[in-house]
Amino acid sequence: MTLRLRRSARLMLAIAAVSVSGQAWSKSDDGEYDATCIQIAIEEQAPDTTIEDIRNQCRKAPGLETKSALDQRVEAEKRNQYNQFTLQLYRANYVLVGSYDFAGINDKPFQDDSTLEGESFEPYEVKFQISLKVPLANDLLGLGDHLFAGYTNRSFWQAYTHNISAPFRETNHEPEVWMSFDMDWDLFGVRSRMIDVGLSHQSNGQSGDLSRSWNRAYLRFVFETESSAYILQPWVRLPENQGEDDNPDIIHYMGNVEFMGVTQYGQSQFSLMLRDNFDFQDNKGAFELGYSYPIHRNLNLYVQWFYGYGESLIDYNYRNNTLSIGFQLGRWL
Prior knowledge:
Layout: H1 7-19, E1 25-28, E2 31-34, H2 35-44, H3 51-58, E3 59-60, H4 69-81, E4 88-89, E5 93-101, E6 124-138, E7 145-157, E8 168-187, E9 190-203, E10 213-224, E11 228-237, H5 250-254, E12 257-265, E13 268-276, E14 285-296, E15 299-309, E16 319-329
Antiparallel strand pairs: 1-2, 2-3, 4-6, 5-6, 5-16, 6-7, 7-8, 8-9, 9-10, 10-11, 11-12, 12-13, 13-14, 14-15, 15-16
């Protein structure tokens, strides 16, 4: 008879998993169990999860190495994938309470706008990003595929500029939909985990001279080593009517491909993002460095440095040099 998990059983299982011999792994007759995996499963399990489900998810066969950082994140998400329409973290979620642009804020697009009224933006502001995804369906094509929808909001808030009523200088909206295919092959010690095929729309919700938007179709390749994850994402811009295109040269500044790497070192995480247009005569692109360190549970100290084009859509053709510090909710790995 299937035994359903109740709160008391979940607590007893968690205590047992982490207390056996004071070790990080708890023993069983048919292998070992990852205590961290058990705790996460207890916190995130679906209502109909059984103890046997968690045993299967968290069993570690004898002789196998500890699961990689990306493995742990992917498997934690998979425990919710069959719970359709549940919110999950997507890209980085952060609030950077101190963000300073050494290049100065780009006032040019706002010269004919009433927002400034003869004033100017300050080079310091608050920058935050909220990024979520929702699993919609699984195995639609019978290829181990997963259908997702996602939304990312990145905002730039002149919170400390009270002479112009602390406006939001720029807000970018990016809804997406993509199909993810599980992969599992190794090449020179690097493991391929998944390939995504998706569509993305990004805009700043403005009109007139301040309007910026574009649509893309992309591929996303996800690789990993034991403590690192790598993402390669090439894209093509979907064409728009010439008279309706707010930024016809955006590809020149934003490029056609983005690379991202994240690595875990102790409790610290380091991230690197690179974009490039591969035009060696007029090269444009950007890089972003990030560092996070846990403070409490899912709250992390986060430091970010962005240099180049496209930090926001209003600045797609303006070179920013922004150093920011604040907090990250959750982590990449």
